[in-house]
Specification:
The complex is a heterodimer of chains A (about 550) and B (about 425).
Chain A: E1 5-10, H1 14-17, H2 22-30, E2 35-41, H3 47-59, E3 64-69, H4 72-85, E4 93-97, H5 99-103, H6 109-127, E5 144-147, H7 151-160, E6 167-170, H8 195-206, E7 210-213, E8 216-224, E9 227-234, E10 240-246, E11 248-251, E12 255-257, E13 273-275, H9 276-285, E14 298-305, H10 307-310, H11 317-331, E15 336-341, H12 351-360, E16 364-367, E17 372-377, E18 380-387, E19 390-396, E20 398-403, E21 405-407, H13 411-418, E22 445-447, H14 457-474, E23 488-490, H15 500-504, E24 510-513, E25 518-521, H16 531-535, E26 541-543, H17 548-559
Parallel strand pairs in A: 1-2, 1-3, 3-4, 5-6, 5-11, 6-7, 11-22, 13-20, 14-15, 14-20, 15-16
Antiparallel strand pairs in A: 8-9, 9-10, 12-21, 17-18, 18-19, 23-26, 24-25
Helix pairs in contact in A: 2-6, 3-4, 6-17, 7-8, 7-14, 11-12
Chain B: E1 6-9, H1 13-24, E2 29-32, E3 47-48, E4 53-54, H2 55-68, E5 72-75, E6 78-86, E7 89-96, E8 119-121, E9 130-132, E10 134-135, E11 147-148, H3 165-169, E12 182-188, E13 190-193, E14 197-199, E15 216-218, H4 219-225, E16 246-253, H5 255-258, H6 265-279, E17 284-289, H7 299-308, E18 312-315, E19 318-324, E20 327-333, E21 339-344, E22 346-351, E23 353-355, H8 359-366, E24 393-395, H9 405-422
Classes of the chains: A alpha/beta (about 550), B alpha/beta (about 425).
Chain lengths: ~550, ~425
């Protein structure tokens, strides 16, 4: 090739200048073919330095640019911006780190110089094979599909819908409100009053930008951020299907509860043993009664039902069990209430006070191990538990079981449809548990509320608002989206159609074209991680900015 | 309402995440930080649970994004002075302290530290190391530009007016002793408060022996002690040298006094045990807890793994730290009321998270209320967990109450959702 490579060495004040013999570097590099010019500058990241570089790119009519300076973490973006300023494709530029990797690491100046030369030579060999990569812009649709009409789905719909953004809200049951509608009341720190949920349902129904489909499911989803095509199936009286295009999807499919019948030790099936959900209904009806029609004189509330089977703490049961105890103490005179817990999980700042108030009302809190046995004893129920190495028991009229929250039944099916992963507990898996807890590997698909794991109502609302934050920030009506530039490409002539790449792609960016018998990368979805490149047995896949020849020449030169 | 500027107070993880998400939507963000660096408390951690990922590796790309984002204007060493007006048109005044080092000219070469004649305790490092009057708080601080502490710099405090040791060492002309503190006026549509937390003062509880026995450490001290970029570069060098055969980690320090569970201490205490077991295989590790609060879906398996490594989890009703023949000992009472004594070589205390210093004053400035614990009050009761009673002002992260990193990130994103929704 007849390259016109420009090489610029930053002195970085004394940092590089004093520890690397830059003149020697220039002398060595200048002798290489395709190198048009090699120059030094006191500080390339300074305003003077950036201006100098911009002028050089134009004046020297460079084909490629190499800057030998600091870590790419520090200034790669700075110099890429300079390239754009100079109308020079930034992918024709390579930054070589001779500061952190050479000057600061090696005390012997000759050795540091030799290493810097090697690195720069390798960079020159690599950059010579760089091709210009162009940013693409894709039209996007601002509308959003929300799956699930519980608290999370309602909140997401309300915060997303607007005059320039329509929301399709799909709910599988016949009405909105989800699990929260089944509660007797909310916790005091959530405002107690359930009418808040009804208000949200009403707001959704009154919002002309939210198209609600109840008794409906999502039948098909194809596409990517900004451009999903969806099909909504509706059963019942208005049976039929609706096709729509949306830019993003919020999955808010909620949770189910552990079935205590799975383990006979909890005694579910014995008269007067109820689940928390059944007990909520009793409170709602205003009649907490035994099968005999009499009010209970003693109640045991058993926490952590299903915790050991499921392998996690559901976070909300301690607080709602305390809510039950408050209700019983406030509404039934002389009732004896015991709470059997493994550990009290009271992580919100107002939870402990709620617990202490219950204690003051005379509720017994009994620490027990997970092994609990519930058995009939005459008309009553015996609860046997173990604590601090001892076995003990209490006899009560009524038992309330607080079961673990588990993934809602249709989760696996939906995960398959959306091509998003599940975690080991069967909930939807977030892309990063710590830093990005509502995103999935598929850009534009978010998960909110209990679909990712047990949480309380305020936390579910926060998740929905967070999903809105992500969507409102990235899908702006009238603005185009710019996908990753450094993506993979599959060369048709080499692809054997083995589909190994499909199994390694974390982002669902590759599909199989069964007509041609080859794999195809969707560049709008690919994020350029390179997993497919490494997995391809026939070498058909190329990462656009990390091609085998580029890497080979770079390594060859570095090892020479 | 059209797109408006937003003020974010606090450049910890929540503040940074919110600023970036807003900036991505094309909003101009003024990001205010009272310290000389960004990143908050998370950058002090070596690893974060439950996947034991390197915190610096997680956070430093976010810090870099903030520093390089053209829509984010960063005000370091700055605090909020006053707020007037209402949502959509707040007029805010900011006081910005002089850094005395140019963020533009300085390249972070650290040539100026060595010549500085002043040696000070490094508070960022929990006073486990020294720093100069011109310094960055830790290796890898971002922006990688020092500042001069005017109270201790001999030239600026007037004790040695001719001193210019740092200026002479700087070849980038980055040091400017004439820089003055400033007051700035900004107009913003919304304000996001992300001022984080502090830790309970464990010295107020003498039964834990902190301050009395050298090898009783606070959790944050231990975080820095085992951090690769910390004062000992990750080596477990104790204040009082000796064998490390038995280490006790005490949960819930200050829980009773504060009246709430902080929700994160059980997990980070288990994280410490993970680290210690990895570092000193033969050491015996004890975790003393009152209730295990491990509410995340992956947290229980982390706890079980910790137990499988041979870490003892012991429930206690009361506990105290004493010294017996030059060795520490922990005395605890179990659920049956019987007392046990375990000798220890090191004790780590996990204190409650409490409202950040200056929260009360900031609440006054913002015209919003505090809850009974002194955290900012939000409209949780109206199921709007990040909104305050003053429209246009939002509170996120640990400024609202103790929480872990993901919950702080979620609140940041949620507040952005509320703000962007109000802009249309």
């Amino acid at each position: 090739m007849n390259g016109q490579i420009g090489v610029y060495i930053c002195e970085c004040g004394p940092n590089i200048k004093d520890r690397i013999d830059i003149d020697k570097v220039i002398e060595d590099i200048s002798s290489l073919g395709d190198v048009k010019t090699v120059k030094r500058f006191p500080l390339l990241c300074s305003n003077d330095g950036k201006k100098f570089l911009e002028e050089e790119i134009k004046k020297e009519d460079l084909s490629h640019l190499v800057v030998a300076a600091c870590s790419p973490r520090e200034h790669e973006k700075t110099f890429m911006d300079v390239c754009e300023q100079a109308d020079f494709n930034p992918y024709l530029f390579q930054l070589i780190n001779i500061r952190e990797h050479c000057a600061w690491m090696i005390s012997d100046k000759n050795e540091a110089t030799a290493k810097a030369i090697k690195y720069i030579r390798a960079g020159i060999r690599r950059v010579a094979l760089h091709r210009p990569l162009e940013k693409k812009e894709i039209e996007s649709i601002p509308d959003v599909l929300v799956i699930g009409g519980g608290v999370s789905g309602l909140e997401a719909s309300l915060s997303l819908a607007g005059k320039d953004r329509r929301v399709y809200l799909v709910e599988k049951t016949g009405s909105l409100g989800g699990m929260a509608k089944k509660l007797s009341q909310l916790l005091p720190n959530q405002g107690s009053n359930l009418s808040l949920i009804d208000e949200k349902v009403e707001q959704v129904h009154n919002n002309e930008n939210i198209l609600v489909s109840t008794s409906s499911t999502v039948g098909d989803v194809r596409g990517f951020l900004g451009n999903f095509e969806i099909v909504i199936h509706t059963d019942g009286e208005t049976s039929g299907f609706r096709k729509a295009q949306v830019g993003a999807i919020v999955v808010a499919t909620g949770f189910d509860v552990f079935d205590p019948e799975e383990n006979s030790q909890y005694g579910y099936g014995i008269d007067n043993v109820f689940t928390a959900q059944e007990f909520e209904e009793q409170i709602k009806s205003g009649n907490v009664l035994l099968k005999s029609g009499k009010p209970p004189e003693s109640v045991a509330i058993i926490h952590c039902v299903g915790r050991k089977e499921r392998g996690y703490c559901s976070k909300v049961c301690c607080c709602y069990s305390i809510k039950f105890a408050h209700y019983l103490k406030d509404n039934l005179s002389n009732v004896n209430v015991s709470e059997l817990y493994v550990d009290l999980c009271l992580p919100h700042k107002s939870d402990q006070e709620y617990f202490e108030e219950a204690k003051k009302k005379g509720v017994h809190f009994v620490r027990s191990e997970e092994e609990i046995n519930v058995n009939q004893k005459g008309d009553q129920i015996e609860v046997e538990y173990h604590s601090e190495g001892k076995t003990d028991s209490i006899v009560v009229d009524m038992v309330v079981l607080a079961p673990a929250m588990i993934p809602s039944g249709d989760t696996p099916e939906l995960a398959h449809l959306l091509n998003i992963p599940l975690d080991k507990s069967g909930f939807f898996k977030e892309i990063h548990e710590v830093l990005d807890p509502i995103s999935t590997p598929i850009e534009g698909i978010y998960i909110a509320g209990c679909a990712t794991g047990p949480k309380n109502i305020p936390e579910s609302i926060v998740q929905s608002q967070a999903a809105s934050g992500k969507i409102l920030s990235s899908l702006i009506p009238g603005e185009k989206i710019v996908p990753e530039v450094k993506v993979s490409e599959i060369r048709e002539e080499f692809c054997t159609g083995c589909q190994t790449c499909l199994s390694v792609c974390f982002y669902g960016a590759i599909r199989f074209d069964s007509f041609k018998g080859i794999s195809v990368v969707n560049e709008a979805i690919c994020r350029g991680c390179g997993s497919c490149v490494g997995s391809c047995p026939s070498g058909a896949i190329r990462s656009k900015h990390f091609t085998y020849p580029q890497l080979y020449r770079e390594i060859l030169e570095a090892l020479r | 309402m059209k797109k408006q500027n937003v003020l974010v107070v606090g450049a910890g993880l929540a503040g940074m995440k919110a600023a970036l998400l807003l900036a991505n939507a094309g909003v101009t963000v003024y990001l205010l930080e009272k310290e000389s660096l960004i990143g908050g408390q998370t950058i002090k951690f070596e690893e974060v649970y439950p996947n034991m990922e390197c915190a610096t590796c997680m956070v430093s790309p976010i810090q870099q994004d903030v520093l390089q984002n053209k829509n984010i204007e960063l005000f370091l060493l700055s605090e909020l002075e006053s707020v007037e007006g209402e949502t959509g048109r707040f007029k805010v005044k900011i006081s910005k302290k002089a850094r005395y080092v140019s963020l533009v000219n300085c390249i972070g070469c650290d040539a100026c530290y060595e010549p500085c004649p002043v040696n000070l305790d490094n508070e960022f490092e929990e006073n486990l190391s020294k720093k100069k009057a011109i310094s960055v708080p830790c290796a890898g601080a971002l922006p990688n530009v020092p500042n001069i502490d005017p109270e201790n710099c001999l030239r600026l405090n007037g004790k040695k007016k001719e001193c210019k040791a740092c200026q002479e060492a700087c070849v980038f002309d980055a040091i400017d002793f004439t820089e003055k503190d400033e007051t700035l006026d900004l107009e913003v549509g919304a304000i996001l408060v992300a001022t984080g937390f502090d830790l309970f003062d464990i010295e107020t509880l003498p039964q834990f022996g902190y301050g009395k026995f050298p090898n009783v450490y606070s959790a944050m001290e231990f975080e820095r002690l085992y951090a690769q970029n910390g004062p000992t570069e990750g080596e477990l060098i104790l204040r009082k040298d000796g064998d490390l055969k038995s280490i006790g980690i005490i949960h819930c320090v200050g829980r009773k006094e504060q009246g709430y569970c902080s929700g994160v201490c059980c997990m980070y205490s288990a994280k410490f045990a993970h680290f210690l077991k990895h570092k000193i295989h033969e050491a015996k590790i004890y975790e003393f807890y009152t209730d295990l609060c491990i509410p995340g879906k992956s947290h229980q398996s982390f706890y079980e793994e910790t137990r499988q490594k041979g870490v003892d989890f012991i429930h206690n009703e009361t506990i105290r730290v004493e010294s017996q023949k030059d060795r520490l000992q922990i005395t605890y009472r179990d659920g049956n009321g019987s007392d046990s004594v375990v000798p220890m070589d090191m004790v780590i205390l996990s204190p409650a998270m409490i409202p950040g210093k200056g929260t009360e004053q900031l609440a006054k400035t913002l015209g919003i209320n505090l809850d009974k614990h002194g955290f900012f009050n939000t409209q949780n009761e109206r199921l709007s967990p990040v909104s305050t009673e003053r429209e246009g002002i939002f509170v996120i992260g640990c400024a609202e109450g103790p929480k872990d990193i993901p919950d702080s990130v979620l609140q940041a994103e949620a507040a952005v959702g509320k703000i962007l929704a109000s802009f249309r």
